[in-house]
Structures are given as C-alpha cells and as structure tokens.
Amino acid sequence: MPLQDSDISWQMLRRIVHDWAGTSAELAEVKYLDGDFRVVRPGAFVRCAVTNVPIPLEELKYWSVDRQEAYALPSAVLQRHFPGAQKAK
Asked: Does some domain include residue 14?
C-alpha cells in the first residue's frame, strides 16, 4: 500500500527530516541538460517521474532532456519511454 500524506507516520518522518536537514530537505528544481543538470532552485532531491520516490541530487543519474523529468532507476526510464513493453516471465 503506498504511503499517503494523511499517514501520520509519513508526516512525522517528513517533519523529522525537515527539522534535521532544514531547507536542504526540500524538493529541488532542476533543468536537465545533455549529460548534466543545473539546479534552478536549491534542494536536496528531485522526484522520479514514474515512481514518485525521492532521488537525492548526488544520486541522480537518469533523466530525460526532452521531457525534463528524472528517473530513479533504468527500469523507470524504460517504463516511461516504452510503457507497453513487459518482461516475459
């Protein structure tokens, strides 16, 4: 079951992280370039366009320049760009 904003434990975790890290725990605004990215608004992370999981900027490896969105894993890139493709089991 995905976490919701109404989940008290999620709210508490968010507050603890924000209290500990201050404004650096905020969502960054990023301009994705070919082979690099530029931070437009400072923050600690961006969100995966497919899974919505936070991606710390120091771990950001996958993004789309055309779509201006980040991906947490290579599988998220494939899911976004080839949504009909499924792995054969």
From this structure: no
Of the candidates 62, 58, 69, which has an alpha carbon nearest to the alpha carbon of residue 31? 69
pTM value?
0.69
Q: In total, how many domains does the chain have? A: 1
Per-residue pLDDT tens for 23-73? 556 899 999 999 999 999 999 999 999 999 999 999 999 999 999 999 999
Q: Is residue 43 part of a domain?
A: yes
Q: How many Å apart are CA 61 and CA 74, to the nearest integer?
A: 9
Region of 22 please: left (phi>0), alpha (psi -120 to 50) or beta.
left
What are the angstrom distances between the C-alpha of 26 and each of 19, 34, 59? Answer: 11, 25, 16
User: How far is it, in rounded angstroms, from Cα 29 to Cα 46?
Assistant: 7
